[in-house]
Amino acid sequence: MPAAAPPRTIACLLYADCMSLDVTGPMQVFATANDVAQHGHRRRAPYRLQLLAETPAPVATSAGIRLMPDEAWSASALDTVDTLLVPGGDGVIAQRDNMALLDLLRRAEPLVRRLGSVCSGALLLAEAGLLDGRRATSHWSRLDQLRERHPDVQVEPDCLHTFDPGSAQDGHVFTSAGVTAGIDLALALVEADLGRPMALAVARQLVMFLRRPGGQAQFSALLAPEPRRTPRLAALLDWLPGQLGADLSLERLAAQACLPPRTLTRAFQKELGTSPARYIERLRVETASALMAQGQASVATVARLCGFGHPENLRRSFHKHYGVGPQAWAERFGGVAVDTVQSST
Predict the structure, then answer these.
(1) Does 131 share its domain with 275?
(2) Confidence at residue 178, expressed as pLDDT on a 0 to 100 scale
(3) 52-71 pLDDT tens trace
(4) Is the pLDDT of residue 10 over 90?
(5) What is the pLDDT of residues 278-318, one digit of tens each?
(6) Are strands 173-174 and 154-155 parallel, antiparallel or unpaired?
(7) Do 225 and 92 share a structural domain?
(8) Hey, which residues does 71 pair with through a beta bridge?
């Protein structure tokens, strides 16, 4: 019988005023994978977890919680680290001038199998020059900083993470969006290492109903910030949720907002960072997902109520935004009486 593979070392950096959840969220995913492997499958723990900091002293996070590093990063053998994660947080701006940290990241990149960031930790990878020419994302509030300070980075505003195990580039250096997206990233890493059944088992253990795909948008259209400079656009956004089953062409929206179509389009891009059509599609699919989760309507009914018309259009939008069809989504949340099974899986 072949010997069990040695555990992979997952290391996470610490620095003053990093966000505690950027560290503990992803690390808990790997710790839960160990628990599932040991207690559920009677296998050796697949991961060894490690916290690294500039000194071995406790590090105060932005929440005031102090985390104890296992060792100073200068003492760590980087060539034994499988995956190195860089958290974000309020302290990220000060750390952009920390030459010792930036040098560590540059030295680590060719040595570790995977190097990734959580939230605004992407700014540190970018400052070290490791994201030039690469796809990258970050917390939505940091995207402009990333674009302006690092124009050679291909900023992806509408995704949860850029990890792609099938890509030599995006499977080696990658980033994730704000805070809890680090958990989605960690689950994707577990799936790449141990398979989808293990990742789903970890998600269930953590009471996460659905592992979100990396390409899903960072935040809900239903939670879009209220426009500050265009009051008529704010009124339009309040009006839209009750009109999803109606004609929402650009001309109809422009008439409702009392703005020329081109002016309306520019206002959407300026205030919300997207086009009217993409905003409405996201609003429709999020409303449809809520209706499916309630289990009180069929796929055909939801498609009609939310303005998709045919269930096939709803199915395509679900796959685009969630990576699964509406029937699979409904089953995860308790199921509905689906009357279009063949076209909705």
Answers:
(1) no
(2) 81
(3) 999 999 999 999 999 999 99
(4) yes
(5) 999 988 988 888 788 767 678 888 899 899 989 999 999 88
(6) unpaired
(7) no
(8) 52
Q: Where are the alpha helices (DSSP H) in the chain?
A: 20-35, 92-95, 99-108, 122-127, 143-149, 181-194, 196-205, 231-239, 250-257, 261-272, 276-294, 299-305, 311-322, 326-332, 341-344
CA angle, residues 189, 72, 125, in degrees to nearest 5: 50
The three-class DSSP label of residue 47 is strand
Q: Are residues 17 and 48 in the same domain?
A: yes
Domain around 113:
8-205
Catalytic choice (12, 18, 119, 306): 119
Q: How confident is the model at residue 199 (pLDDT cuts 50, 70, 90)?
A: confident
User: Given CA atoms 85, 86, 88, 90 in this order, what sign does their dihedral have?
Assistant: positive
Domain boundary among 160, 181, 205: 205
Mean pLDDT of the chain: 86
**Alpha-carbon distance 74 to 67, whole Å?**
18
Do 68 and 103 fall within a single domain?
yes
Query: Which one-letter amino acid corresponds to residue 19?
Result: M
Of 205, 235, 256, which marks where a domain is finished? 205
Task: State whether 162 and 277 are in the same domain.
Answer: no
- Within a domain: 211: no
Residue 276's alpha-carbon distances to 189, 252, 254, 259, in angstroms, are 34, 11, 10, 13
Question: In a 10 Å sphere around its CB, with 0-12 CB exposed, 13-18 middle and 19+ buried, how is residue 306 labelled?
Answer: buried
Half-sphere exposure at residue 43, Cβ-oriented, CA atoms within 13 angstroms:
16
Instruction: Indicate whether 332 belongs to any domain.
Output: yes
Has 258 been annotated as catalytic?
A: no
Please indicate, yes or no, if residue 322 is contained in any of the structural domains.
Answer: yes
What's the number of domains the chain is made of? 2
In a domain, 210, yes or no: no
